[in-house]
Specification:
CATH superfamily of one domain: P-loop containing nucleotide triphosphate hydrolases
CATH topology of one domain: Rossmann fold
Number of strands: 12
Structural class: alpha/beta
Largest sheet: 8 strands, mixed
Strand content: 15-25%
Mean pLDDT: 86
Bound molecules: adenosine-5'-diphosphate, magnesium ion
Low-confidence stretches: 1-11
Length: 346
């Protein structure tokens, strides 16, 4: 298919990025942690996948690991597949991966400050990136960077071009970071809690910016967020991670309004209130996530689960379709699935 035939067409069904059976072990010192344990997901053009789960559930490692963006100082062992453009990122060398990152993928981090060099002016950092990615001349790169700032909704971009990071607000910087991520015209935008460090008004603006870019450019977005309002307004699908595994996934509206996994139910509170964040459980799920350096059989949530049954500690639950629900709605909780089936039979 050539580019023209794609113009104005509806979202194609072919995923633009597909991760399957991803397992990521981290080794730091003599501790090893299974941060991601058999995760599968994909995104299509124009689609937003939201990833939610408590802190430490593996959201960042799952999304940044395949792109080679985990911090140095930790040894990373990855298995599975992360395929884009017919190629597996996990098999790529550093240089090829860097090209892939600069081309197909754009990444927005939680903390914009840490992604920019504090000693250098903002604009030239964007220009250098644009140059590196597209090979344009210095003058053109400046123009491109100002254009990117303008597109990201930054007022007076010619003036902002010469500012240092500390001279800009968090919201402005995050806009600049999004501009930077978009410099390479990515097809997939990975945003790791892009609004966590910002106040509510600015959060809403940043989310609106991402939505607008998605509409205009047709990019696919993987959005890690703590904000249930964000999930309900922008996500097509949602994935709930618990201790490195998918507890539940499906169409966002359905998972938010009819959660099945006890963990999702706990995260949302029994009555979902779209104004509250979901980063931490609402009414408090007693206990803490398991120690991922000790792998035990069974469901990771068993020790905290109000509905735990003996079988839960023996077999690792697999994702299964929720009976009578959207076919994409899947959950890894045999007792709940059985209860739904029994109710349907009654
Ligand atoms: N740099 C690191 N060194 C060692 N362990 C890490 C590192 N980063 C993350 N982890 C571990 O990997 C797991 C997943 O972390 P992470 O993906 O950051 O969670 P989330 O983004 O959902 O808060 C956690 O158990 C965390 O302790
Ligand atoms: Mg994280």
């Amino acid at each position: 298919m050539n580019d023209m035939s794609a113009v104005g067409s509806v979202a194609s069904d072919a995923p633009i990025y597909s991760v399957s059976d991803l397992v990521i072990d981290l080794y730091a010192g003599n501790v090893s942690v299974r941060a991601v344990d058999g995760v599968t997901f994909s995104v299509r053009p124009r689609e937003t996948l939201a990833v939610v789960g408590e802190s430490g559930s593996g959201k960042t490692v799952m999304t940044l690991g395949p792109l080679g963006l985990l911090p140095e100082g930790v040894t990373v062992d990855m298995r599975g597949k992360a395929v884009s453009d017919g190629r597996d990122l996990l098999g790529m060398g550093a240089r090829e991966l860097s090209r892939m990152r600069g081309g197909r993928f754009g990444v927005v981090f939680q903390d914009p400050i840490s992604a920019l060099n504090p000693m250098k002016r903002v604009g030239p950092q964007l220009a250098a990136q644009a140059r590196r990615l597209t090979g344009v001349s210095r003058a053109k790169a400046r123009e491109a960077a100002i254009g990117l700032l303008r597109r990201a909704g930054i007022p007076d971009p010619e003036d902002r071009y010469n500012r240092y990071p500390h001279e800009m607000s968090g919201g402005m910087l995050q806009r600049a970071m999004i501009a930077l991520a978009l410099a390479s015209k990515p097809q997939v935008l990975i945003a790791d809690e892009p609004t966590t460090a910002l106040d509510a008004t600015v959060q809403a603006q940043i989310i609106e910016l991402i939505r607008q870019l998605q509409r205009e450019e047709g990019i696919a977005v993987v959005l890690i967020t703590h904000d249930i309002g964000v999930v309900s307004t922008v996500a097509d699908r949602v994935m709930v991670l618990y201790a490195g595994r998918i507890a539940e996934e499906g169409p966002a509206r359905e998972v938010l309004t009819a959660p099945v996994h006890p963990y999702t139910i706990g995260l949302l509170g029994s009555v979902p209130d779209l104004r509250k964040p979901i980063g931490e459980p609402r009414q408090g799920i007693p206990g803490a996530p398991p120690d991922q350096s000790r792998l035990v059989p069974g469901c990771r949530f068993a020790d905290r689960c109000p509905m735990v049954e003996p079988e839960c500690r023996i077999h690792s639950p697999q994702l299964e379709q929720v009976p009578g629900a959207d076919p994409m709605h899947r959950v890894a909780c045999p007792p709940q699935l059985r209860a739904i089936r029994e109710r349907a039979d009654a």
